[in-house]
C-alpha cells in the first residue's frame, strides 16, 4: 500500500493502524495569497474558507485553492497542520479563541506526527499523498498567531505534500 525508499511504517498492519488514528479536523481553502510572496508588504485580504470537504486533484492541488495548478509538480499542492501543535503553541503564548486556520494550511489533523512523514507516501481517506517537506514557519506567523509563534513553530510548522491520487477529503465526525 505504501511505496517509499524509507522503511516506515515497517508493515501494512502498522500502516493501517497508524492512519486509522489520523483525524481530519478542519479543511480550508483560499483563492488568493495573503502571506506567500508578500515579504515587506502588508498581508493580502483573501478570505480563508472552511469546508466540510475538498476535492483533491492528483498533480494539481485542491480545487478552488490558491495553489491549484500553481506550478508543474509543485511540492505544496496541499498542506497539513497539527491541531495538537496549534494547541501547544497557543497555550505557550497565552492565545485563546483563534482557529488553526490562521496558519493558512489546508488540512488540520489530529493524531499524527506530521514531520515523521517527510519523504514518504501516505494515505488518508483513500487519497495518496507524497510528503515533500515540512512547512517552514515565517515571520507572518507572529502576526497571525502571536509574537513568538514563528520561533515556537520551528520544525513544527506543518507538512507540504503532492497529491498522488484524486478524491474527496472530508472532515471526520
Brief digest:
With 173 residues, this protein is an alpha+beta fold. Helices cover 17% and strands 27% of the residues. The two termini are 25 Å apart.
Description:
- Helix content is 17%, strand content 27%.
- The chain has 4 helices and 10 strands; from the N terminus they run H-E-E-E-E-E-H-E-E-E-H-H-E-E.
- It has a single domain, classed as M1 Pyruvate Kinase, Domain 3 (Beta Barrel), CATH 2.40.33.
- The protein is globular.
- It has 173 residues and is α+β, with helices and mostly antiparallel strands.
- A hairpin with a 3-residue loop joins strand 3 and strand 4.
- Strands 2-1-6-5-9-8-7 form a 7-stranded mixed β-sheet.
- It starts with 11 loop residues before the first helix and ends with a strand.
Kindly give the count of domains.
1
Total count of strands: 10
CATH class: Mainly Beta
Q: Describe the strand arrangement of the main beta sheet, using strand numbers.
A: 2-1-6-5-9-8-7
Q: Roughly what percent helix? A: 10-25%
Radius of gyration: 16 Å
The shape, in one word, is globular
Terminal CA distance: 25 Å
CATH superfamily: PK beta-barrel domain-like
CATH fold naming: M1 Pyruvate Kinase, Domain 3
Give the DSSP E fraction (strand runs of 2 or more residues).
Answer: 25-35%
Number of helices, counting only DSSP H or I runs of 4 residues or more: 4
CATH architecture call: Beta Barrel
Q: Which spans of ≥5 residues are poorly predicted at pLDDT below 50?
A: 1-11
Largest sheet: 7 strands, mixed
The helix-and-strand class reads alpha+beta
Return the average pLDDT rounded to an integer: 84
Instruction: Summarize the helix and strand pattern as letters.
Output: HEEEEEHEEEHHEE
The protein's oligomeric status is single chain
Amino acid at each position: 500500500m505504501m511505496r517509499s525508499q524509507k522503511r516506515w511504517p515497517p508493515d501494512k498492519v502498522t500502516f493501517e493502524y497508524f492512519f486509522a488514528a489520523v483525524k481530519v479536523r478542519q479543511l480550508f481553502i483560499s483563492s488568493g495569497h495573503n502571506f506567500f510572496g508578500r515579504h515587506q508588504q502588508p498581508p493580502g485580504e483573501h478570505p480563508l474558507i472552511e469546508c466540510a470537504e475538498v476535492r483533491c486533484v492528483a498533480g494539481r492541488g485542491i480545487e478552488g485553492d490558491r495553489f491549484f495548478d500553481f506550478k508543474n509538480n509543485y511540492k505544496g499542492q496541499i498542506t497539513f497542520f497539527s491541531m495538537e501543535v496549534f494547541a501547544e503553541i497557543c497555550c505557550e503564548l497565552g492565545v485563546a479563541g483563534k482557529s488553526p486556520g490562521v496558519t493558512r494550511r489546508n488540512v488540520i489533523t489530529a493524531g499524527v506526527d506530521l514531520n515523521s512523514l517527510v519523504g514518504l507516501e501516505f494515505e488518508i481517506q483513500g487519497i495518496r499523498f507524497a510528503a515533500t517537506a515540512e512547512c517552514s514557519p515565517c515571520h507572518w506567523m507572529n502576526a497571525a498567531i502571536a509574537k513568538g509563534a514563528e520561533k515556537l513553530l520551528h520544525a513544527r510548522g506543518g507538512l507540504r505534500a503532492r497529491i498522488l491520487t484524486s478524491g474527496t477529503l472530508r472532515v471526520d465526525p
